[in-house]
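Sample 3 of the quickstart, ligand NDP:
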Amino acid sequence: MSDFNAKKVLVLGGSRGIGAAIVRRFANEGAAVTFTYAGSKDAADALATEASATAIRSDAADRDSVIAVVRDQGALDVLVVNAGTLIIGDPLELDADAVDRMIDVNVRAPYHAAVEAARHMPEGGRIIVIGSVNGDRMPFAGGAAYALTKSALQGMSRGLARDFGAKGITVNVIQPGPTATDMNPEDGPMSDFMHSFMAIKRHGRPEEIAGLAAYLAGPEAGYTTGALHTIDGGFGA
Ligand code: NDP
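Result:
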């Protein structure tokens, strides 16, 4: 497959999990891929070698760093904002600074990255943000702040789709359900509960999410924008 031959792709948060699968997918299809990471230098270096990609250390909680990384890429064909963190717990007990940091990474970074990317993107550019089915449905206690961050991406993408539509740039949200990564291992404590109400009673694979990202970035998706694309095994059905 070579839909992305010579295309320039930036994945924010690409060293592990869903982001790493997205890096591999675009690299395997011929793209020149750059990705960021915050802490996992060894994983980032290994993936960069494996996928012939470029790894840049940049904390998504640092707005200026996010904007600088995107700006330095120049005319990107595809921006994927995947970096995200998950804090679950009693809102009466959660550390306020930790909650605000999650909001910085999960909401402020996608907004500023998307806007900066659109300044330089050519006609037909693609902006893809990784949200969550929890933007639509939060079926357990303790997830209010995380759900807040993911539902914020819904409004952001609808609005930016209209802002950038005239330039032929599409803006879409992928909303995964439980996906087997370090953040949400398939043998984790919540898995049986989540599988109990899902139609497909397993975690998704990062490669399944990457496949949807490739579709949204590809030539058949030029008419798809401002939309939420849920891929969740029926978690939210
Ligand atoms: P992981 O924790 O497995 O991986 C997160 C990735 O994002 C890593 O590459 C990590 O880099 C990077 N990252 C995290 N924080 C930062 C930061 N401050 N700056 C730069 N990079 C950062 O998570 P997943 O792969 O599971 O999740 C990816 C996205 O998918 C997130 O937005 C998450 O909310 C969303 N999602 C995940 C679901 C799941 O069940 N797994 C379900 C629904 C949505 P580093 O290695 O350096 O820390």
